[in-house]
Write a structure and sequence with these properties.
The structure is a single chain. The chain is an alpha/beta fold and 154 residues long. The protein is built from four helices and eight strands; from the N terminus they run βββαββαβββαα. The chain has a single domain, classed as Leucine-rich repeat, LRR (right-handed beta-alpha superhelix) (Alpha-Beta Horseshoe), CATH 3.80.10. Helix content is 14%, strand content 17%. This is Leucine-rich repeat-containing N-terminal plant-type domain-containing protein.
Length: 154
């Protein structure tokens, strides 16, 4: 996958967690998985081991949750980080300094244009998603999550 530069899986009905293996995509400059049903947190591997060349990172319109890692917003080439219409509960101030970011309709306290407190409470009252297991949470179909990117791309 040395030559893979763009991953665009918009509106594909993906309904699992993002695989940890996305951290192996060192040459990707565009990563867009918006308008799916992805759940769980963003994998730490996004920023710790891979996607160091990513310029456009779009995970909007899913059911992702948890806190945004500061290291995501510190990716050296990142210009546009779109994570609106999810259920994120924390965002580092560093993300607000990006040239383009969109955090609307999450569960970020004190930020404008967020989901209602009722929507957030209902969603966050569910058990946390365990992306390491084949039972990826109540909100996911009975299909096991795709844990290895090579298999997902076939």
């Amino acid at each position: 996958m040395k030559n893979l530069e763009e991953i665009i899986f918009m509106n594909n009905g993906l309904n699992s967690c993002l695989p940890v293996d996305i951290g192996r995509l060192k040459n990707v400059t565009v990563f867009n998985v918006s308008f799916n049903e992805l759940v769980g947190p963003l994998p730490v591997s996004v920023c710790e081991t891979g996607l160091v060349l990513v310029e456009q990172f779009n995970v909007a319109h899913n059911r992702l949750s948890g806190k945004i890692l500061v290291s995501i917003c510190q990716l050296p080439k990142l210009e546009n980080f779109t994570y609106s219409y999810n259920f994120f509960t924390g965002e580092p101030p560093m993300c607000l300094r990006l040239p383009v970011s969109n955090e609307r309709r999450n569960c970020l306290l004190g930020r404008p244009a967020q989901r209602s407190s009722k929507q957030c409470a209902v969603f966050l009252s569910r058990p946390p998603v365990d992306c390491g297991s084949f039972k990826c949470g109540r909100s996911v179909s009975h299909s096991p999550p795709c844990l290895y990117l090579e298999l997902c791309l076939k």
